[in-house]
């Protein structure tokens, strides 16, 4: 038996698993033909009255919200805004049954548990019924700071990463109220309750990796430093046909053999992205020019490095672009974690030309005895001399050997079927 910690990579609840196995119940359903995201965008922009209110916005009481709890009359509330999701029902990638869990109630928590990053505001713009009527006791959410306080001093202590801000009360005396929150000034909410924060980045370089994959270098706004922890991802957001579309991507290092990202300036992000012929987001990304802008979220994800601290052997199972989180793990294991005696990557692809950073991986393996890579192709050409086939239990048994006294850690990433199969075999 391998001593494999139960936490695999990506974690069972992480969005890195495109559809995590069982537990969280996040499963994409097969949508009827003509019900893709682009179809929804076209339908919602067609000018039809999707709320039944002919463009009017209303204040919705809790009692009113509760009444709209049927499949053919379904309202839901997210972050204080009420939407009529009846017309969206057949377009929801999570299916009708899931969406009905939100019927007639505040579904903010449910929504966030499943897909906090989904930009419902933009997708459901035409379905907006109105705002929830405020309840007497909910005023303490934020405050109109500038009418009560004035900024006095700001001290920064770079060495400890702290900022000290001193504010002065404008008028002496007790505040009678805290006022209303300014839009986006929701800093009295916990991070998990806040919508994702995006910053405007610039595409500064695009480098071809293979026939369909590129590394996109994005520059953060001037003065912004962002550290994306290993194993976490960011969300990219773009306006496509007047609707915001969001997709997650895992930053990679600039290369496999150079210094790690954290020793470089953290003002740039490198994203290795495969462009799909029918991909909504990646097709748009592929049309961007150097100098074009793109919104990038703060890092998200549940992966934690602490389980790796006492590992001696790191096994990485990747398929296709499931390679991206492995890049920084490889760097980290080889450069910063002396306890890890061996890092082995088993990399599954269809054809040889699909293998990402093939020569870099070979070079790394040739120069660092602690690193080993093996490729398995499902559709090899005649000239391929390496292994072929698909992921099976016997392939994994052969690969995941546990030397005496070792502590092995296995990370797996790829399309849903791949992560489910591999975690099934390993656990
Ligand atoms: C946490 C996380 C991190 C990710 N990191 C990366 C990354 O670093 N690099 C990267 O290229 N992608 C990554 N992805 C996948 C990415 O988010 C998008 O799903 C992908 O770019 C396709 O988006 P799209 O809008 O172009 O395609 P869509 O319009 O959503 O789909 C178009 C077609 O592509 C196929 N397709 C879409 N996504 C996948 C997939 N992941 N595997 C197999 N087929 C697929 C679908 O079958 C569909 O037919 C990550 C996904 C997750 C969940
Ligand atoms: C009301 C507004 C909602 C909108 C606009 C919405 C939109 C979406 C979108 C765009 C996806 C695809 C996600 C992706 O490709 O990454 C999705 C998937 C999904 N949704 Fe929703 N959703 C809503 C509410 C809910 C609620 C309340 C639930 C659960 C109770 C839910 C459960 C799911 C599930 C299980 C999936 C499939 C798994 C996944 O792809 O992450 N959704 N939804």
Report what the structure shows.
With 427 residues, this protein is an alpha/beta fold. The chain has four domains: 99 residues, Cytochrome b5-like heme/steroid binding domain (Flavocytochrome B2, Chain A, domain 1, Roll); 48 residues, no CATH class; 100 residues, Elongation Factor Tu (Ef-tu), domain 3; 122 residues, Nucleotide-binding domain of ferredoxin-NADP reductase (FNR) module (Rossmann fold). Helix content is 20%, strand content 26%. It is built from eleven helices and 19 strands. The strands form four sheets. Strands 11-10-14-8-9-13-12 form a seven-stranded antiparallel β-sheet. It has a five-stranded mixed β-sheet with strand order 1-5-4-3-2. A five-stranded parallel β-sheet has the order 18-17-16-15-19, sandwiched between helices. Strand 10 and strand 11 form a beta hairpin. The longest helix is centred in the C-terminal third of the chain and has 13 residues. It is globular. The structure holds flavin-adenine dinucleotide (FAD) and protoporphyrin IX containing FE. The site of protoporphyrin IX containing FE has 21 residues, from helix 3, helix 4 and helix 5.
